[in-house]
Design a protein that fits this description.
10 helices; 0% strand; Hypothetical protein af1432; 188 residues; mainly alpha
C-alpha cells in the first residue's frame, strides 16, 4: 500500500467541505479499522480498511452523479486497486462483486455507521446509552433518517455473515470512544 493516511485525509478534504460528510468519513474509518480486527486479519488489514472507510464518499459532495467513479479512478491511478474495488462495491445497486472481506465490511459499516450517528443525535445522552434495541426500533421507522437505505444495511450484514443486532453492537462499541470527535454527543 502506497497511500498514507495523511495523503488520503488531504485528498478527502480537497473534495469535501461539509462537516457532516467529513464526520461520516471519520466514523466509517473508525468502524472499518475496528472491523479489520473483528472480521479481517487485524493489524495486517487495519490501514487499508481504514482508508477505504475514510475515502468511500470522497467524491460524493462535488460529483454526486459520478459517485464513486472519481475516487475509484484516483485510487487506481495511485495503484490502490483493492481500495478502489472496495469503494466501487459499497452499494449493492452498482453490481460490483464482493470479492474480499474488506469489500463486504465496507458495505456493512457504511450505512449503519451513519444511521447509528443519527440515532445518537436524538438521545439525551447521545451514543453513551445507545443500544441495538433502540437502533433496530428506529430502523423500522422509515421516516427516521429516511436517506439511509435499509436494504443496504441488511445486505451488508448478510454478505458479511453477521447477525444485524450483533453488528450494531459492534459498531456502537467501536464509535463510542470517539463520540466527541464524531459529534455523537447531543448538545442540549
Amino acid at each position: 500500500m502506497n497511500l498514507t493516511r495523511d495523503e488520503a485525509w488531504k485528498h478527502l478534504c480537497s473534495w469535501t467541505e461539509s462537516e457532516a460528510l467529513l464526520r461520516h468519513a471519520l466514523g466509517v474509518e473508525i468502524s472499518m479499522r475496528a472491523a479489520a480486527h473483528h472480521y479481517g486479519e487485524g493489524d495486517k488489514d487495519e490501514e487499508a480498511w481504514g482508508l477505504a472507510g475514510l475515502l468511500h464518499d470522497a467524491d460524493y459532495e462535488k460529483w454526486p452523479s459520478e459517485h464513486p467513479q472519481r475516487i475509484v479512478d484516483w485510487l487506481r491511478s495511485r495503484e490502490e486497486a483493492s481500495l478502489a474495488h472496495a469503494i466501487s462495491a459499497h452499494h449493492t445497486s452498482w453490481g460490483v462483486p464482493y470479492e474480499t472481506q474488506m469489500d463486504r465490511a465496507l458495505l456493512a459499516c457504511d450505512e449503519l455507521t451513519g444511521f447509528i450517528g443519527a440515532c445518537s443525535l436524538v438521545r439525551p445522552e447521545g451514543i453513551a446509552t445507545l443500544t441495538p434495541k433502540s437502533v433496530l426500533k428506529k430502523l423500522k421507522d422509515k421516516r427516521f433518517a429516511a436517506g439511509v437505505d435499509r436494504k443496504e444495511v441488511h445486505a451488508g450484514c448478510e454478505l458479511l455473515g453477521v447477525e444485524l443486532r450483533e453488528h450494531i453492537q459492534f459498531l456502537i462499541d467501536s464509535l463510542r470512544p470517539h463520540a466527541e470527535e464524531l459529534g455523537l454527543i447531543r448538545k442540549v
